[in-house]
Amino acid sequence: MRIGQGFDVHAFGPGDHVVLGGVNVPHSQGVVAHSDGDVVIHALCDAVLGALALGDIGKHFPPSDERWRGADSRVFLRHCAQLMAQAGYALGNADVTVVAERPKVGPHAQAMRELLAADLGASPDDISVKATTSERLGFTGRGEGIAAMAVVLLRKAGA
Ligand SMILES: Nc1ccn([C@@H]2O[C@H](COP(=O)(O)O)[C@@H](O)[C@H]2O)c(=O)n1
Ligand SMILES: C[C@@]1(CO)OP(=O)(O)OP(=O)(O)OC[C@H]1O
């Protein structure tokens, strides 16, 4: 088994929704990012890559590469899932925490779990998506941005 963790932050900016776990969540702002700025998927990608000791999302999808401008982050996650399978591993389970005062994540968590599971070749039962505010403290508390943390456990495929 191998464990990995990931963390990502994006600042809020102009827009009317944020993409979280592949789901378009209505919000009074969007995020500033090269891709679609999906902090849930970026943190998950870094967790999977970390478990495999294969670097980080920026190594595989450089922000300097125009191909990734406005990209759907599910493309990144599917690539990480391929790398995981090539290395002989499958997802054991994943646990994600979003940190934001708003938007509320709870009503969208199940939809996120289903999309993430599809991309990772896993069951939604093995993927947790939860959220917390930071009690109005720090950059998330001031509503300046959104963060996500992810932990994954990978198991040998077929084991
Ligand atoms: N962006 C968020 C933040 C929180 N939640 C849900 O609200 C609960 C209470 O949050 P506290 O920070 O006050 O503990 C939290 O446990 C989540 O269920 C949310 O859905 N989206
Ligand atoms: C995802 C990438 C893609 O170019 O850009 P961003 O959308 O800005 O997101 P970030 O979390 O900063 O990760 C770096 C890049 O890999």
UniProtKB/TrEMBL annotation:
<dbReference type="GO" id="GO:0008685">
    <property type="term" value="F:2-C-methyl-D-erythritol 2,4-cyclodiphosphate synthase activity"/>
</dbReference>
<feature type="binding site">
    <location>
        <position position="139"/>
    </location>
    <ligand>
        <name>4-CDP-2-C-methyl-D-erythritol 2-phosphate</name>
    </ligand>
</feature>
<comment type="similarity">
    <text>Belongs to the IspF family.</text>
</comment>
<feature type="binding site">
    <location>
        <position position="142"/>
    </location>
    <ligand>
        <name>4-CDP-2-C-methyl-D-erythritol 2-phosphate</name>
    </ligand>
</feature>
<keyword id="KW-0456">Lyase</keyword>
<feature type="domain" description="2-C-methyl-D-erythritol 2,4-cyclodiphosphate synthase">
    <location>
        <begin position="1"/>
        <end position="154"/>
    </location>
</feature>
<keyword id="KW-0414">Isoprene biosynthesis</keyword>
<feature type="binding site">
    <location>
        <begin position="34"/>
        <end position="35"/>
    </location>
    <ligand>
        <name>4-CDP-2-C-methyl-D-erythritol 2-phosphate</name>
    </ligand>
</feature>
<comment type="function">
    <text>Involved in the biosynthesis of isopentenyl diphosphate (IPP) and dimethylallyl diphosphate (DMAPP), two major building blocks of isoprenoid compounds. Catalyzes the conversion of 4-diphosphocytidyl-2-C-methyl-D-erythritol 2-phosphate (CDP-ME2P) to 2-C-methyl-D-erythritol 2,4-cyclodiphosphate (ME-CPP) with a corresponding release of cytidine 5-monophosphate (CMP).</text>
</comment>
<feature type="site" description="Transition state stabilizer">
    <location>
        <position position="34"/>
    </location>
</feature>
<dbReference type="InterPro" id="IPR020555">
    <property type="entry name" value="MECDP_synthase_CS"/>
</dbReference>
<dbReference type="InterPro" id="IPR036571">
    <property type="entry name" value="MECDP_synthase_sf"/>
</dbReference>
<feature type="binding site">
    <location>
        <begin position="8"/>
        <end position="10"/>
    </location>
    <ligand>
        <name>4-CDP-2-C-methyl-D-erythritol 2-phosphate</name>
    </ligand>
</feature>
<feature type="binding site">
    <location>
        <begin position="132"/>
        <end position="135"/>
    </location>
    <ligand>
        <name>4-CDP-2-C-methyl-D-erythritol 2-phosphate</name>
    </ligand>
</feature>
<comment type="pathway">
    <text>Isoprenoid biosynthesis; isopentenyl diphosphate biosynthesis via DXP pathway; isopentenyl diphosphate from 1-deoxy-D-xylulose 5-phosphate: step 4/6.</text>
</comment>
<feature type="binding site">
    <location>
        <position position="8"/>
    </location>
    <ligand>
        <name>a divalent metal cation</name>
    </ligand>
</feature>
<dbReference type="Pfam" id="PF02542">
    <property type="entry name" value="YgbB"/>
</dbReference>
<comment type="subunit">
    <text>Homotrimer.</text>
</comment>
<feature type="site" description="Transition state stabilizer">
    <location>
        <position position="133"/>
    </location>
</feature>
<feature type="binding site">
    <location>
        <position position="10"/>
    </location>
    <ligand>
        <name>a divalent metal cation</name>
    </ligand>
</feature>
<keyword id="KW-0479">Metal-binding</keyword>
<protein>
    <recommendedName>
        <fullName>2-C-methyl-D-erythritol 2,4-cyclodiphosphate synthase</fullName>
        <ecNumber>4.6.1.12</ecNumber>
    </recommendedName>
</protein>
<feature type="binding site">
    <location>
        <position position="42"/>
    </location>
    <ligand>
        <name>a divalent metal cation</name>
    </ligand>
</feature>
<dbReference type="InterPro" id="IPR003526">
    <property type="entry name" value="MECDP_synthase"/>
</dbReference>
<feature type="binding site">
    <location>
        <begin position="56"/>
        <end position="58"/>
    </location>
    <ligand>
        <name>4-CDP-2-C-methyl-D-erythritol 2-phosphate</name>
    </ligand>
</feature>
